[in-house]
Amino acid sequence: MNVAIIKYNAGNIYSVDYALKRLGINPIITADKEIIQKADRVIFPGQGEASKTMEYLKTHRLDELIKCLKQPVLGICIGMQLMCKHSEEGNTECLGIFDAEVKKFQPQRHEDKVPHIGWNNFFNLKSALFPEQLEDRFVYFVHSYYVPLCEHTIATTNYVQPFSAALQKDNFYATQFHPEKSGKIGENILRNFLTLQ
User: Residue 25 gets which letter from DSSP?
Assistant: First the structure.
């Protein structure tokens, strides 16, 4: 199976590479449009700032490429947020794959720390991306911005308020959490992504 990891100016790309190699997959980290288009699966991961990242994608014409992909695509963390229509981070117009807004966490209590860092459970799983036995298990988050619950929500987490832990529309899947940093649970999710029909 050919798996392409989109290479752009974001951090955390190589941890996804290592996670896939643990599953026996040797992905290609690339910005080559032809390679990305021909891949069986595409992963759009990363950590970064929304406006600068979108500017980079547009400059290198990766924005239009991502929106037109037909194979299963998995966005992770900033990848998920950039697949939405708008982010409060830098007042950024994003890819618009998901009709959703990205909001900044507004702490309600003293114990509400931003960014949200660490392990949290996810529930209300509604996609073939997640085996049933993962309901209410714990995955790893690092983020200051979130996507509110919406029509594309396929998993929910509660931190400050309920928010979208994952989204799906057609062949586009996305997780706010980091499956590549979520141990065996994350491996299960990545393995499921690789076998989606």
Answer: -
Q: Walk me through the domains of the chain, giving residue ranges and CATH numbers.
A: 3-195 (3.40.50.880)
Q: Indicate if 111 belongs to the active site.
A: no
Residue pLDDT, tens place only, 76-132: 999 999 999 999 999 999 999 999 999 999 988 888 899 999 999 999 999 999 988
Give me the sign of the Cα torsion angle 26, 29, 35, 37.
positive
Task: Output the CA–CA distances (angstroms, integers) from residue 184 to 19, 37, 130, 135, 139, in the order listed.
Answer: 10, 29, 13, 14, 10
Is 143 marked active-site? no
The helix/strand/coil state of 43 is strand
Given 77, 84, 94, 116, the catalytic residue: 77
What does the radius of gyration of the chain's CA atoms come to, in whole angstroms?
Answer: 15
Give CA–CA dist 132/124, Å, rounded: 10
Whole-prediction pTM: 0.96
